[in-house]
């Protein structure tokens, strides 16, 4: 099942998501549906709040980037109840976009190294460190489960400059190639 993507202005995108356990209803189906939605939307990462679920669940598949970044070919993960334990290294600005903010790309500063604790889809706990682009994607998706969006990291001047685009997204007047759920 393909979920609609919740766009800017939806309250669920600004809530801190709740942790889940192995008894979460139909968890495998939710994960499968999130991956289906991710692929249908041509994304590389998706957090549960982006499909209207206020739970700490993230799916990532970086394979679509493997033509230019071959090291990302096999990076496909489910992150449940993720917690970033450490951000380190230098702060790097790179351009980001988001399925919940169609048509907006901005340069966002992020740490280029992170250490994260999470459970996989079998609720096996992992503590892993990531660098560079992988760290950026995880931080971007992690923001969603903490009620933040990448535009929260840009300057007030840049936010002012995209105000019209944000208004169009929240009204549902933006066009995109995937199904969205704008604010009603």
Overall description:
The protein is an alpha+beta fold. It has one domain: Peptide Deformylase. Helix content is 23%, strand content 29%. It is built from 4 helices and 7 strands. The strands form 2 sheets. The protein has a 5-stranded antiparallel beta sheet. A two-stranded parallel ribbon has the order 1-7. Strand 5 (106-119) and strand 6 (125-131) form a beta hairpin. The longest helix is centred in the N-terminal third of the chain and has 14 residues, at 27-40. It is globular. The two termini are 23 Å apart.
Give a concise summary.
This protein is an alpha+beta fold. It contains 4 helices and 7 strands. GO terms for molecular function: metal ion binding; peptide deformylase activity.
CATH architecture: Alpha-Beta Complex
Strand content: 25-35%
How many helices? The count is 4
Morphology: globular
Alpha carbon gyration radius: 16 Å
Distance between the termini: 23 Å
* Sheet with most strands: strand arrangement: 2-3-4-5-6
| CATH homologous superfamily label | Peptide deformylase
Q: Which ranges are low-confidence, i.e. pLDDT below 50, for 5 or more consecutive residues? A: none
- Count of spatially separate domains: 1
Q: Which bin fits the share of residues in helices?
A: 10-25%
The class by helix and strand makeup works out as alpha+beta
Encode the helix/strand succession as letters.
Answer: EHEEEEEHHHE
So what's the CATH class? Alpha Beta
- Care to count the β-strands? 7
What is the CATH topology assignment?
Peptide Deformylase
Average pLDDT, all residues = 95
Give a quick account of the main beta sheet: strands, pairing sense, barrel closure: 5 strands, antiparallel
């Amino acid at each position: 099942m393909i979920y609609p993507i919740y766009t800017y202005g939806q309250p669920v995108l600004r809530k801190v998501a709740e942790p889940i356990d192995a008894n979460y209803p139909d968890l495998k189906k939710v994960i499968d549906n999130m991956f289906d939605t991710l692929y249908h939307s041509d994304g590389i990462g998706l957090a549960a709040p982006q499909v209207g679920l206020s739970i700490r669940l993230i799916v990532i598949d970086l394979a679509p980037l493997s033509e230019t970044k071959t090291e990302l070919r096999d990076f496909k993960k489910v992150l449940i109840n993720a917690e970033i334990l450490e951000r380190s290294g230098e702060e790097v600005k790179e351009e980001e976009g988001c399925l919940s903010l169609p048509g907006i790309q901005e340069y966002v500063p992020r740490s280029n190294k992170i250490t994260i604790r999470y459970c996989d889809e079998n609720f096996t706990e992992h503590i892993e460190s990531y660098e560079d682009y992988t760290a950026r994607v995880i931080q971007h998706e992690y923001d969603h489960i903490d009620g933040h969006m990448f535009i929260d990291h840009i300057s007030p001047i840049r936010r002012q400059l995209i105000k019209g685009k944000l208004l169009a997204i929240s009204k549902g007047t933006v066009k995109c190639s995937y199904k969205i759920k704008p604010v009603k």
